[in-house]
Amino acid sequence: MNCIIVDDEPLAREGMKLNIQELPSLQLIGSFENAMQANDFLSKNEVDLMFLDIQMPEVTGLDFLKTLNLKKPPFVILTTAYPQFALEGYALDVIDYLVKPISMDRFIKAVNKVDYYYKLREQASTDTTPAAANTDKTSDSPVGSDNADIEDYIFIRADRKYMKVFFREINYVEGLKDYVIVYTDTQKIVTAMNIKTIEGQLPSNLFIRVSKSYIINMQHIKAVDNNFVTIKEKEVPIGKAFKDNFLNNIVNKRVLKR
């Protein structure tokens, strides 16, 4: 995977470079001290992975992510000495969050996670068809919230075939730009579709969107706290923009009163 480093600290860039050199799967093609330099490079080159510092002068890493507008944006691993920004980073679709000083074992774990998503994306891209890449036009779909009482399953285009998945089998859905991953107990189904499209085709009495990147099946909720909802064994982050709706309309209505 082609990767770049964006960090205003020279020693931090050098340390990250040494870590990258230890992994044959990574090829460093750029190192930048600010977001403006990185933005110019990204506009002209295809990058698979960006190691991005948060606390930088002029434009922070998080602000940079909010303004990034690329047809095929890189996966992002945040690097910082301030762990309190982790939740906001996940709301911006980052893959992982490394707290400085970064240990090699934690670095490898983060890169392995990116490699997993990278392979899923490449697999899905070979299966893209006009039907699979449908964006926000959901009115022609036979499955949706209006007729959830008639149908209890959906067909998902993946691996060059249409896979039948019952709503009750879906634990949660994760969005990755123009792809989604549907998680069940037994499989992960990757398809070329944005999360807004699949949200419109899932019954609203069973599914709710809890962040920019996640839709959950309410039947499989195990626990909820202020920042995460546990689905089976997965902790799914709750986004700020979705938090009030989820807590007020789903959780608080069923809280056992004293």
Automatic annotation (TrEMBL):
Give all residue intervals belonging to the HTH LytTR-type domain. 154-225
Q: Specify the domain of life of the species encoding this protein.
A: Bacteria
List, alphabetically, the InterPro entries matched.
CheY-like_superfamily (IPR011006), LytR-like (IPR046947), LytTR_DNA-bd_dom (IPR007492), Sig_transdc_resp-reg_receiver (IPR001789)
Gene3D superfamilies per UniProt: 3.40.50.2300, LytTr DNA-binding domain
Q: Which residues carry this modification: 4-aspartylphosphate?
A: D53
Q: Which UniProt keywords apply?
A: Phosphoprotein
A Gene Ontology molecular function term of the record: DNA binding
UniProt protein name: Two-component system response regulator
Q: Does the keyword Phosphoprotein apply?
A: yes
Q: Where is the Response regulatory domain?
A: 2-115
